[in-house]
Amino acid sequence: MSEPAIYQYRMRATWNENPWSPWVECTEGTYNDCIKSPLVNDWAYEARKLFAEPFDIEPPRYAKRLINQLKEQNQHMTDKVDRAIRQCEISAAMFDTDDRGVRLADMFHSIKTTLTK
Q1: pLDDT tens sequence across 42-87
Q2: Which of 44, 25, 42 is nearest to 34 (CA)?
Q3: Does 89 or 75 have the greater pLDDT score?
Q4: Residue 77, SS3?
Q5: What is the pLDDT of residue 102?
Q6: CA-angle at 63, arms to 6 and 55, nearest 5°
Q7: Concatenated DSSP letters for 27-48?
Q8: Is the dihedral of CA 96, 98, 103, 105 positive or negative?
Q9: Is the sign of the CA dihedral 38, 40, 44, 47 positive or negative?
């Protein structure tokens, strides 16, 4: 694994929903302090390591299972959307136009095109 190119930290006051400060370059020691004590005297700290090159690691085994599960869920949702669109198209054919004279079948076709992109 490669060494970090730089260390950074940022902070924010924890009262009145204050925003985070911009990231600031720091030493490894400051980074470690922020990780060890992320809240000091009502100030919250975050720290990160930035690397010059991407990690060259194999994803964990469970990641492949998770990816496959997400693909299956996505396909399931796509199937549900397709069924709903078909039902809308059937309804549109029955009523033909809405009160503005827009062909409902055209409107549902537009929605389907948007959803399946």
Answers
A1: 999 999 999 887 655 666 666 777 777 777 877 777 777 777 767 7
A2: 44
A3: 75
A4: helix
A5: 59
A6: 25
A7: -HHHHHHHHH-SEETTEEEEEE
A8: negative
A9: negative
In whole angstroms, what is the distance from residue 61 CA to residue 103 CA?
50
- How long, in residues, is the chain? 117
> What local confidence, expressed as pLDDT, does residue 112 receive?
67
DSSP-based three-state secondary structure for 66: helix
Give φ, ψ of 30 to 5 degrees. -65, -40
- Supply angle C-alpha 76, 77, 80, rounded to 5: 90
User: Taking Cα atoms as reference points, which of 89, 68, 70, 79 lies closest to residue 116?
Assistant: 79
- pLDDT (tens digit per residue) in 22-43: 999 999 999 999 999 999 999 9
Helices and strands of the chain, counted as H and E runs: 3, 4
